[in-house]
Design a protein that fits this description.
Helix 8 (262-276) runs parallel beside helix 9 (291-300). The chain is built from eleven helices and 13 strands. The model has no long low-confidence stretch (mean pLDDT 93). The protein has 346 residues and is an alpha/beta fold. An eight-stranded parallel barrel has the order 3-4-7-8-9-10-12-13, surrounded by four helices. It has a single domain, classed as Alpha-Beta Barrel (TIM Barrel).
């Protein structure tokens, strides 16, 4: 069905199409499409059961409006945000571009969202029916980015199943400076102290850039372990890697997502997994649109995977499609549970 209507949807700008998708999900007119419920795909993270490892990446449900309808479409988990303390419009439009020949998107949205006050109130009124991640970041015009993270952490530490510290968007100037050792230590030290002050047990995730130099990975990993980070999300969008793209929109400034960063993400996952092993869970993002592509991330070392661009090009039933394909692949290989294969390609 989606393949038939996709040309019509793609006549709209990407942001208009996205807005229509959110409105449609809020109306609950899309029928539930439960993914295959099998023991092979079930996993447990931080004491919570997850029906399958396929999740929605931050950026789709920025304002935490449709996470429960997304669970109904078969996703095992959903990450909302990125959420900033104050509401912000983001960068000027147009700011999202399709690269159809490349199965990719470029965006320079800039953390457009309704702000922590409105979104935290919405989540309190509409409790999640599944495993929920909450992605937080600083406002563009803030005087103190660390304090912005702490403000959001205070708002959301008791509303989700994990909180993601987003240090990796290429669309907020100098945000990626937090990949530097001193800045990362300062931020994670502050987060851990606030977590202790609040007597919170919520797991902490850090979302990293795909554009980091390999010689930084070991030192970043050591800091993640030192400050008891629970999850590393690999990776965000890339502001480079344009050489092999075909669509003219490759010239647009912003973060590249989708198939062109699949291998980059997988290679990073393998390197991180060799260092952090089972100490820190990995969520793999980038180019997931099939059971095979999800499998590659699991084999590389990810415990869970996320997608966004894959849904843009394949429609709302992608979670059940991937889950069914992945289940069949593993079943044919005699695998009893996905936990058996994590990191086995290293």
């Amino acid at each position: 069905m989606f393949k038939k209507i996709r040309p019509l949807i793609f006549k709209f700008s990407p942001e208009v199409a996205h807005s229509l998708a959110i409105k449609t999900l809020k109306s609950n007119i899309i029928p539930s499409n439960k993914a295959m419920d099998t023991s092979i795909l079930k996993t447990k993270l931080f004491g919570k059961n997850i029906k399958n490892p396929i999740g929605v990446a931050a950026g789709f449900d920025k304002n935490a409006e449709v996470y429960n309808p997304l669970f109904n479409l078969g996703f095992g988990f959903v990450e909302v945000g990125t959420i900033t303390p104050k509401p912000q419009f983001g960068n000027p439009k147009p700011r999202v571009f399709r690269l159809e020949e490349d199965n990719a998107l470029i965006n320079r949205l800039g953390f457009n969202n309704s702000g922590s006050e409105e979104i935290s109130s919405r989540i309190k009124k509409n409790l999640a029916n599944g495993f929920l991640g909450i992605n937080i970041g600083p406002n563009k015009d803030t005087d103190n980015r660390v304090e912005d993270y702490l403000n959001c952490f205070r708002k959301f530490h008791n509303l989700g199943d994990y909180i993601t510290i987003n240090i990796s968007s290429p669309n907020t100037e100098n945000l990626r400076d937090f990949h530097n050792i001193n800045e990362l230590e300062e931020l994670l030290d502050a987060i851990q102290k606030e977590k202790n002050n609040l007597k919170s047990n919520i797991p902490i995730a850090v979302k990293i850039s795909p554009d980091i130099e390999n010689n930084k990975i070991e030192s970043i990993s050591e800091i993640l372990i030192k400050y008891f980070v629970d999850i590393v999300i690999i990776s965000n969008t890339s502001d480079v890697n344009r050489d092999n793209l075909n669509n003219i929109n490759k010239l647009e400034k912003g973060g590249l997502s989708g198939k062109p960063i699949e291998k980059i993400s997988n290679d990073l996952i393998k390197i991180f997994f060799k260092i952090i092993g089972k100490n820190i869970k990995i969520i793999g993002v980038g180019g997931v649109d099939s059971g095979k592509s999800a499998l590659e991330k699991l084999l590389s070392g990810a415990s869970l995977v996320q997608l966004y661009t894959g849904m843009v090009y394949n429609g709302p039933n992608i979670a059940s499609k991937i889950s069914n394909e992945l289940n069949d692949i593993l079943k044919n290989q005699g695998i009893k549970n996905i936990s058996e294969i994590i990191g086995t390609k290293n």
